[in-house]
Amino acid sequence: MPRAGLDPAAVVAAGAALADEVGFANLTMGLLAERVGVRTPSLYKHVGGQDDLTRRIAVRALNEAADAVGGAVQGYAGRDALAAAARAFRAFVLEHPGRYAATIGQEPSGPDDPLAAAGQRLLGAFTAVLRGYDIEDRDVNHALRLLRSLFHGFATLQASDGFQWSTDVDDSFEWLIAFADRGLRTL
Length: 187
Prior knowledge:
Protein name: TetR/AcrR family transcriptional regulator
DNA-binding region: 28-47
Organism: Streptomyces violaceolatus
InterPro entries: Homeodomain-like_sf (IPR009057), HTH-type_TetR-like_transc_reg (IPR050109), HTH_TetR (IPR001647), MT1864/Rv1816-like_C (IPR025996), Tet_transcr_reg_TetR-rel_C_sf (IPR036271)
Keywords: DNA-binding, Transcription, Transcription regulation
Shape: globular
């Protein structure tokens, strides 16, 4: 009998929070069971195991990132939308490094996979940003990969304390936004 109040959504929420606290690489079913107050085998009533938990956390993280970025760009266009999206994405990764790490390397099993839908939502938010630039349809995927590389790279490096020198990280991030904006405007 499942513990009262414990369901798949609660297990995934607790797993995502725990991943943010201890790091995604340190998230285990045993640690999660301890967190939610059950024995490890009880978790298998709610998730199919570590891989299933990871996929569900990834879906949650992609949807949360899509909400953050999509909400941030509302009413903006061009550089302002780019800056809002970049800042929202960076803030999400810095606030939720464990759950964001769960998204890396996850492949949708097909078009109906919730992971595919969540990924498309996040791409859609960044695609909306690109509408403020004169980018040919054939180049949109290249531009999306550029933005992902820039913003993902910067945010994950910062989240893992990868910037050890004295230059202000916020100044560097604003420089990155200006660089991306100039590049997108020249296409």
